[in-house]
Design brief:
By secondary structure, chain A is an alpha/beta fold. Helices cover 36% and strands 21% of the residues of chain A. In chain A, β4, α4 and β5 form a beta-alpha-beta unit. About 5% of the residues of chain A have low confidence. In chain B, α12 packs across α13. Classes of the chains: A alpha/beta, B alpha/beta. The interface between A and B is large, with 60 and 77 residues.
Chain lengths: 331, 548
């Protein structure tokens, strides 16, 4: 594939942030998961005008951003984008990218980078880090954009690479001054890109499942907490690493908001996943948390008195017309 | 960091604290090493997942050159070995500890080997005292020495900038500065000095100003000085060096240290590749370079320090009368009312900037070179392990709370008397400032509706409080001073506060885009002022300090 064929001869003067937002709109990126940093503000600021159909989800942990994108990509076969800041932001994403690499989930991670004139003193630069050696083992490809003229082609190339079998995460670094400054960019050929994109994105499920069962392991015994009659017809999905389970499930739920997503949980998992559950509440996404009660542990629902819409349910009924919220199913 | 830093590290110790991820374990070790001045060891598995979690934590230690050793049983896959070299200053096998080598070890360090080899390695490292690399085989040429003496004689307003590399010999260095009547400014890294050195510093009670980084006194010193004598500093951007768009100092720069990069050496008027001790020994026999030319300079800096403290006190008194808690008031009150031996832990973000403004030479752990978030709770466990008898007070923002909330359960299980203040303004305050100053106050993805942190803390077994008014905070403090149980305090503060300090972090963050976006900057700033987005009291405090 030659990415340059996806760009028209006409150009427009835009900031790098605006251009990236335009590219994300062209690729019909549905979600941008981010813990914002100062250097990526131009991208965020551009989204209302240039990517109005993309929803920005602010997470509380960069790794969780990637896990959610992993779940979304694995369930839907489409890519979401994560946007950590440079330095500590991309460092925090590393285990998440590894998880997506293992589970072959397509996603695109964008990071602002230090400009080339700072690389000789990277140790003394604030938030200085060259992440390329760290990203190489855990991404399909990681690229660093040096000039404005490379940006569009690199972005499209990486997006398509993420979707090519075997799917997986890709990463693009952009020197952050490029995001702030205005340059002439070639406009993307929206129709051509979308046509190629639709050809690339397959449907990962064989027919539409009744729902999804997300476990920390693909082995059948990990689904044990849920009765067979409840999960029959559900598709089993697992993230690359167990730490990703809850946010991965949220990503699956974002991909299929009309289907139930079940997760067997332990108290340990719940305590680690507070931010994910809170984001699910914010987004109005339903998750069904199957909790096996023991006598010396609190009921799942009591762990989160602060979640207003929690409802313990004895069993998941066939009629899933329930208002959105977190549901604790005591098993 | 000057290689001398290792000399000050005495017996090391490792921890029996088990944390939920290797990232959290590395963070805890980082804080323990930073506050104690000793080496901290972390043992993780060689599984790629653990390596990557550890790498994400090790990056923060790498940036601040902290003495953390990550031990990995087994061999590293080649691609991960290359990856770890990005975030560790030394990667070696346990068998190859250079016990007799004159080469210094640089930290953080990753070591691999069998378990028994790692045990032997950590034992050997604990008692290893390296020979100090000296310049004795390459004596300093007389010309550079003469030039440095010339610079000192010509100066009228010199300052001594003490960096992280100067920590091992900080007291003798300050004694020289005191004899020479040269005021001292600590770099960001040196401001977070180990607790034992801090105790010596306070006990010694110098007659010259010793000014920590991150406040407007330091800004005035940098702007006014005509000579900066930088000892043991890597000349990082956080301290104002190497910025591409501005140079927040006009002075000549005399640097003393052995491990300065070429690019950093190019910033110096003169670089002397001496260890700090070598340089001190060269100067000890000399008369102090105090001439009539800089008489009165030290007193002037002292008056600035006193004025700064007065401004803080007056402003806090005004803020106490308001019906909401301002983050400045909260930061000032905590740092003044905490028990004397409290160790403070904080992280990047708006709350961290507030603490830099109000903390003055108190034990403090902070990720200086990265200004990152999400480290405070694991840091505090490391600090507590290093100093179990000292109170530990955490300051973190609501945006960082969800990185490691499960550590509150560990604090409760072990009954660790750690007090955590959550500065809850329901937004990513520092990032939001960027949107205020550059993007016309268009706030996207920075609002953070949050749950009741006090309720979460209770579920984890901690005591907890929610505080909405200044008087409530003042009434709570006596209990917090004597608590024997972990406490979380959810401080409700308004959005859009403007920290009076922390400008050094902001300058470094936006270096490269400020000049090219001056139009947006001015337009957005004026809009913010006229629409009341920026609290004017902060601007008034700054004016009082910088414009007499």
């Amino acid at each position: 594939m030659d990415p340059s064929e996806f760009f028209a001869d006409t150009t427009k003067k835009l900031s790098g942030g605006e251009y990236l937002a335009l590219l994300m709109e062209t690729l019909e990126i549905p979600y941008l998961f981010t813990l914002p940093g100062s250097q990526d503000l131009p991208i965020l600021d551009a989204t209302p005008n240039y990517a109005p159909n993309m929803r920005i989800v602010a997470t509380r942990n960069e790794r969780v951003s990637v896990h959610i994108a992993e779940g979304y990509g694995k369930a839907s076969g489409r890519i979401a984008v994560t946007l950590p800041t440079l330095g500590p932001g991309i460092a925090n994403e590393l285990p998440g990218l590894y998880s997506a690499f293992l589970s072959h989930a397509p996603l695109l991670s964008l990071t602002p980078a230090q400009p080339p004139n700072k690389l000789s003193r990277i140790s003394e630069v604030f938030q200085g880090l060259d992440p390329q050696p760290l990203l190489k083992p855990i991404t399909k490809r990681c690229l660093r954009c040096e000039t404005a003229s490379d940006l569009g082609a690199m972005f499209i190339e990486l997006a398509f690479l993420a979707l090519a079998d075997p799917k997986g995460p890709v990463h693009l670094e952009i020197p952050f001054p490029l995001l702030f400054t205005r340059s002439r960019y070639p406009l993307p050929n929206q129709e051509g890109i979308r046509k190629s994109l639709h050809n690339k994105v397959g449907t990962p499920t064989q027919g539409k499942p009744r729902g999804f069962l997300v476990t920390d392991s693909p082995h059948p015994e990990s689904t044990a907490p849920f009765p067979q009659r409840v999960t029959s017809g559900f598709q089993l999905l697992s993230p690359g690493i167990p730490e990703a389970t809850a946010p991965f499930a949220l990503g699956v739920a974002l991909a299929y908001p009309d289907l139930p997503v079940l997760i067997p949980v332990t108290q340990e998992l719940l305590k680690r996943s507070l931010d994910t559950l809170w984001i699910a509440e914010e987004l109005g996404i339903s998750l069904f948390l199957g909790y096996k009660e023991t006598s010396d542990e609190k009921r799942g629902g009591d762990l989160f008195p602060w979640i207003p819409s929690r409802k313990p349910l004895p069993i998941l009924s066939e009629d899933a017309s329930l208002p959105p919220g977190l549901f604790f199913i005591v098993l | 960091m000057d290689s001398l830093c290792f000399q000050s590290l005495g017996p090391s110790f490792s921890y029996g604290v088990f944390l939920p991820s290797s990232q959290a374990a590395v963070y805890a070790a980082h804080a323990a090493a930073q506050i104690s001045g000793k080496i901290a060891f972390v043992r993780i598995s060689a599984h790629p997942k653990d390596l990557l979690f550890a790498a994400s934590g090790l990056y923060i230690a790498w940036a601040d050159r902290i003495a953390v050793v990550v031990e990995i049983p087994g061999d590293l896959p080649h691609e991960f070995s290359t990856a770890l070299k990005t975030v560790a200053r030394t990667v070696l096998k346990a068998q190859s500890l250079p016990l007799c080598s004159e080469e210094p070890l640089e930290f953080p360090l990753v070591v691999t080997g069998k378990n028994e080899e790692l045990d032997a390695f950590s034992k050997a490292l604990s008692s290893w005292q390296p020979r100090i690399p000296s310049n004795s085989t390459k004596p300093l040429l007389p010309q550079p020495l003469k030039e440095s003496q010339q610079l000192l004689r010509q100066a009228k307003k010199p300052i001594l900038l003490a960096g992280g590399g100067a920590i091992p010999f900080l007291i003798p260095l300050l004694e020289w500065a005191e004899r020479s009547k040269i005021p001292v400014l600590l770099t960001a890294r040196a401001t977070t000095i180990p607790f034992p050195v801090h105790k010596s510093l306070i006990a010694r009670s110098f007659s010259i100003p010793v000014v920590p980084s991150g406040n407007l006194v330091g800004v005035r010193m940098l702007l006014s000085a005509d000579l900066i004598i930088a000892v043991g500093s890597a000349l990082s951007e956080v301290d104002g060096f190497g910025l591409k768009e501005m140079r927040p100092y006009r002075a000549k720069l005399l640097h003393i240290g052995t491990s300065l990069s070429e690019a950093s050496a190019a910033l110096c008027t003169l670089h002397l590749p001496l260890t700090g001790e070598e340089w001190l020994s060269l100067l000890t026999g000399e008369q102090p370079y105090v001439g009539a030319s800089w008489e009165g300079w030290c007193e002037k800096v002292q008056r600035w320090s006193e004025r700064w403290h007065r401004i803080l006190e007056e402003s806090a008194a005004q803020e106490a009368k308001k019906d909401f808690i301002s983050p400045f008031f909260a930061a000032y009150t905590l740092t003044r009312y905490a028990p004397n031996d409290t160790i403070f832990v904080s992280e990047g973000g708006a709350c961290g900037m507030q603490i830099w403004a109000t903390l003055w030479l108190k034990p403090f752990v902070f990720p200086c070179q990265t200004g990152c978030i999400g480290v405070t709770l694991p840091f505090s466990l490391g600090v507590q392990a290093a100093y179990p008898r000292n109170p530990v007070w955490n300051i973190l923002g609501d945006g960082a709370f969800f990185y490691y909330p499960e550590l509150l359960a560990i604090m409760a299980e072990q009954r660790l008397p750690i007090v955590t203040f959550v500065f809850n303004d329901a937004c990513y305050g520092a990032i939001r400032l960027g949107q205020t100053f550059f993007f016309g106050s268009r706030y996207i993805a920075t609002d953070l509706p949050s749950p009741e942190f006090s309720a979460i803390a209770r579920e984890y077994g901690c005591d907890s409080y929610r505080v909405d008014h200044p008087q409530e905070l003042l009434e709570l403090l006596p209990h917090l001073r004597t608590t024997s149980h972990p406490v979380v305090v959810d401080l409700r503060i308004p959005k859009d506060s403007l920290p009076i300090a922390g400008g050094n972090f902001v300058l470094a963050e936006f270096d490269g885009v400020t000049r090219t976006n001056l139009g947006s900057l001015f337009k957005s700033t004026f809009k913010a002022i006229f629409t009341g987005k920026l609290p004017l009291n902060t601007l008034r405090m700054g004016r009082k300090m910088l414009i007499p």
